[in-house]
Amino acid sequence: MDINNLQEKEIYDNNINDFDEWKDYKWHLKHSVKNIETFERLTGIEFERGERNKIQKTIDKFPVSITPYYLSLIDKENYKLDPVFKQAFPDPNELIITKYDMRDPLHEDEDSPVECITHRYPDRVLFTISNKCAMYCRHCTRKRKVGDVDYIPSKDVIERGIEYIKETPEVRDVLFSGGDPLMLSDDYLDWILGKVEKIPHVEIMRIGTRMPVVLPFRITDSLVEVLKKHHPLWINTQFNHPRELTDSAKKAIDKLADAGIPLGNQAVLLAGVNDCPRIMKKLMQKLLQNRIRPYYLYQCDLTEGLSHFRTPVGKGIEIIENLVGHTSGLAVPTYVIDAPGGGGKIPVMPNYLISWSTRKVILRNYEGVITSYKEPDSYEPVFCDRDCNNCKLNLKLTGAPEYKATGIVKLLSYYDRTLSLTPENTDRINRRKK
Ligand SMILES: *Cc1c(COP(=O)(O)O)cnc(C)c1O
To answer: Which terminus of the chain is less hemmed in, N or C, by CB atoms within 10 Å?
Structure first.
């Protein structure tokens, strides 16, 4: 099978009268496939009774919703092994809950100062402004919230989120996510982006959306007109397989790129979907061809119902090993594990630094060449005591404000006396408290 030559299949030719409807995103939302019967009718795939019951049980717990567009990409002849099918259609394995699975593995609900904000990192927040999605990805990390009416953020709630950002001057980066923020109407988005943009300390805004993948027709000219009013705005999307880069997807991406919106991709490493260096390399290269910069490759989270999608971490390392040096540096995403318990994203990479002495480091490259890099004999270390006015470096610090050192940076510094970071509830520390 040549993955480069697969086109968007138009199985709907017989089902709609006017082909223009196919390009109308509202038509797709209205006709999203939400049950087994419709799926069977439209694809000609038939499940046997036992299988059907199991699928139904899965849907009862985790609802299904597939846009006709994304449905049309399923390879019907070989659907069981199809990466598009696997991302869209329920698998009874979702009902398996392993010992380590969690409802909210990233503790997003805990790090939430107001209802729809997760404030985890020093200078940026996650703002969940929508709980709806055009398609319910089976591998969703926020599976617990999918389709749950309790999580629809009201305008009140969103206003409180905006208020929080206003009152929190360290927030310089606002990341809109959801759900899919592009499920909101153009006008409502315009209103939210405009409000946040006006906050003086907000430097950039980002939108995380899977619309270019699951419903590219949502990227209308009028939406693009709204988005380009609010620069600097960055968009990250989630292509997981090269086959998802169809002509329609490319057109949507082109519109966004032409509007001056920098595009990134956050792929998720999924067993049976893209856990293959060959597919991943093609995906990354195709993204670059379409002006999308691979940003993250995520290790699959420990969310309940995702056990069948998880790979060992070694698979991710192997994929990165197959990219670094072998293809454009721009094609290499940062492979991250989002730490269970709310530690945030932790990058994991193959090891290139093999050994070192006081004056030399030993490195290896992608081919296995082992090399040495001689470090300078005469680097005069700067012991930064934060007395910038008497610093012998003259680095023109105007405009680069002081920051607060946290975490490992604190240990690395000379101006802070912290010697170690100690976990709170070890036996040793608890004994001290007594
Ligand atoms: C991923 C994430 C961000 C953004 O992280 P970047 O590494 O800056 O892309 C911010 N907040 C939360 C809670 C996140 O999960």
So the answer is: C
Flag whether 288 is in a domain.
Answer: yes
Q: Is residue 360 part of a domain?
A: no
Given the residues 133, 206, 275, 286, the one annotated as active site = 133
Is there an atom of ligand 1 within 6 Å of 120 CB?
Answer: yes
Pocket test for ligand 1, best of 114, 124, 164, 235 (most atoms within 8 A of CB): 124
pLDDT in tens, 197-225: 999 999 999 999 999 999 999 999 999 99
- Give 416 Cα–ligand 1 centroid separation in angstroms: 27
Residues 167 and 257 in one domain: yes
Q: Is 345 in the pocket of ligand 1 (CB under 6 A)?
A: yes
In angstroms, what is the span from residue 417 Cα to ligand 1's centroid? 29
Inter-residue contact 257 to 293 (CB < 8 Å): no
Active site annotation includes 133? yes
Domain count, the chain: 2
> How many Cα neighbours within 13 Å face the side chain of 61?
19
Classify burial at 360, counting beta carbons within 10 Å of its beta carbon; exposed 0-12, middle 13-18, buried 19 or more.
exposed
Same domain, 195 and 322: yes
Position 174 in a domain: yes
Same domain, 178 and 260: yes
CA distance 364 to 351: 9
Domain of 10 in residue numbering reads as: 3-94
CA dist., res. 361 & res. 367, Å (int): 18
* CATH number of the structural domain spanning residue 210: 3.20.20.70
User: Among this protein's residues, is 431 annotated catalytic?
Assistant: no
124-128, strands of its sheet edge to edge: 117-121, 124-128, 173-177, 204-208, 233-237, 263-268, 292-298, 334-339, 344-347
Q: Take atom 8 of ligand 1 and give the residue whose Cα is closest.
A: 124
* Ligand 1 touching residue 331 (CB < 6 A): no
Cα torsion 189, 194, 197, 198 to 10°: value is -150
This prediction has a pTM of: 0.92
The per-residue pLDDT for range 176-202, each reduced to its tens digit, is: 998 899 999 999 999 999 999 999 999
